[in-house]
Amino acid sequence: MAREEPDVEALNEAISSALVFNDEVKDGGGVQITCFSEVVNDVALHFQILRLPKQIYVWMGCDSAKLGHIYAAAPTRPKDMISVTSILGGASDNTGSGIARRLVLKTGLNIILACNIPKNSPMLEAEAEKMLVQKLIQLGYTRAKAEGSSS
Amino acid sequence: MDFLGLTKCAQGNKTDVVLCSYDDHFLVIATQIGAMGTILHARKEEGVSIEPTFNVSAVFGKRDEPMLLACARQLIQHISISGSSRSLVISLGLKDHSAETLKGVVSAVIENRLW
């Protein structure tokens, strides 16, 4: 199937510009994609935030670009209690479930989190979570919650 | 990590498609409902026979929609034929699960594939 030249050019440009890890915000139709990276104690943390109208998908990578374990978390009735479930992986290493839960607690969003942060690094976990929450607030994705957040 | 986002129109519904390539997985999101919808995991299993076998399962959301499984199965087979042994995580948040819609999703993903 022959592809028209302008389409190939646009596609190449989209993919090559998406490889820049520098607060890149792209609008894929109704979806906003933000990527950024930070270095913490010689460890590179990569973040990808994908905003859908009713949900947010977040990927957190630590040094590598592996998908990691996937968790879903959301406020559920009654009283907006936070529920978390593991979708992929997460049997012995459930670092991500704590992060997912606290993300929903602090932002009030419906979240799918893919996280490959290793399990025995609480400092790294805390730093990554802090950066992510700050970014979500900065991008204006968070919902105002009635009660103050408690860590 | 590589990604691509696009919007297609399938059966009159605006469909947002996002494709991401990670070290060990491909992620495909096709949504018409503003959320990720049903999440499926498809992987190739290395067996003793020459023909590869694929394991496709719904891990979140509707578990009784065979067309979604068929869609994931087609894509993992395409990935395998292209020479990659990575697994696929696909999330489908669609308003209808007709064959035409899913064929549209499969062709949009294959046209813009990252493998």
UniProtKB/TrEMBL annotation, chain A:
Organism whose genome encodes this protein: Lithocarpus litseifolius
PANTHER family (UniProt xref): PROTEASOME ASSEMBLY CHAPERONE 4
Top-level taxonomic group: Eukaryota
Protein's recorded name: Proteasome assembly chaperone 4
GO biological process terms held by the UniProt record: proteasome assembly
UniProtKB/TrEMBL annotation, chain B:
Tree of life domain: Eukaryota
InterPro entries the record matches: Proteasome_assmbl_chp_3 (IPR018788), Psm_Assembly_Chaperone (IPR053720)
GO biological process, any: proteasome assembly
Protein name, UniProt field: Proteasome assembly chaperone 3
